[in-house]
Amino acid sequence: MKFSASLSLLAALLPIVSAGVLERRAWSLPPVNGVFDYQLGGAYAPESNVQIVTRDSGAAALAGKYNICYVNGFQTQPQDKSFWETNYPNLLLRRADGQLFEDPEWPGEYLLDTRTAAQRTALVDVMATRYINGCASKGFQAIEIDNLDTYSRSGNLLNINGNLLYAGLLVQYAHDKGLAVGQKNAAGLGVRGKNEAKFDFAVTEECEEWDECEDYTDVYGRNVIEIEYTRANFDASCSARGSDISIVLRDYLVVPKGRPDYVYAQC
User: Fold this and answer.
1) pLDDT tens for each residue of 74-97
2) Would you give the distance in Å from CA 252 to the centre of its chain?
3) What range(s) does the Glycoside-hydrolase family GH114 TIM-barrel domain occupy (predicted)?
4) N or C: where does the chain have the smaller number of CB atoms within 10 Å of the terminal CB?
């Protein structure tokens, strides 16, 4: 294990919750090229050599690992539509006819409205209360914020600048809670994710498939975590950069271990 990775893993092992009170701590990066497992479809015991685990915000952190908490920061989760409509209807993006803007690629998920400073500030308050505070108090060391690229699927209602300003507020809040923050996908941001929103590392899905892995490593160096969903792309990625960054093969639905369609491999 590299020295820098050892320091990061040591930070992951430090106790951060005592008698239910969150202790103040500095955020730390995931171990560079640490063995990784991506458990969004359900939590399970990882392989013994795994150092980094991503789980949904509703799951528990895993003792002795560097834990990344998944947060769908730019649109609603499918089961949360009624929560948002009841409590925060004005924070949901709407079409010209007043209907909620449903993500065309993710049915049942509705885009959040990042167009004004007031909207962005209000959204951070909701995300903090509903997700980020819980990630910190459970012992996660980082969050990954998904669907940063909603602006590209919003019919030009949203734009990259509004989303980046909102992302920057989320990063600032998470840092104050002792959490590092990963840029999730959105390779087209170039250096703006790191320089403007202040993301600390990147999590990329299928960068080999889309020939964009270097778009992340050029910005974040070795602080990149890559998930591939086909054996061919996984093998190619391991050959090209498996000694530099964390790479894992998972099934598309990232189901828990024990399911017949479960797939997992590490470089």
Assistant:
1) 999 999 999 999 999 999 999 999
2) 16
3) 36-252
4) N
Give the Cβ contact number of residue 4 at 10 Å.
Answer: 14
Lowest mean pLDDT among 19-23, 33-37, 211-215: 19-23
Beta-bridged to residue 144, according to DSSP, are: 70, 182
**Domain locations along the chain:** 3-266
Percent of the chain whose pLDDT exceeds 70:
91
Strands (DSSP E) contained in the chain are: 17-18, 21-22, 36-39, 52-56, 66-71, 142-145, 180-184, 201-205, 224-228, 246-250, 264-266
- CATH number for domain 3-266, candidates 2.60.40.1180, 3.40.960.10, 3.20.20.70, 2.60.40.10: 3.20.20.70
Q: What angle do CA 223, 225, 214 make, to 5 degrees?
A: 70
The secondary structure of residue 23, as a DSSP letter, is P
Q: How far is CA 15 from CA 67, 232, 246, 251, in A?
A: 13, 40, 25, 32
Tens digit of pLDDT for each residue in 175-214? 999 999 999 999 999 999 999 999 999 999 999 999 999 9
Nearest-angstrom CA–CA distance, 121 and 32: 33
Query: What does the alpha-carbon distance between residue 178 and residue 230 come to, in Å, rounded to a whole number?
Result: 34
Instruction: List for the chain the helix, strand, coil content (%; round to 5).
Output: 35, 20, 45
Residues 6+ apart with CB under 8 A from 31: 1, 2, 4, 5, 6, 8, 9, 12, 51, 52, 66
Q: How far apart are CA 7 and CA 246, in angstroms?
A: 17
- In whole angstroms, give the CA distance from residue 254 to residue 185: 17
pLDDT beyond 70 at 2:
no
- pTM (predicted TM-score): 0.89
Q: Which of 108, 123, 98, 104 is nearest to 76 (CA)?
A: 108
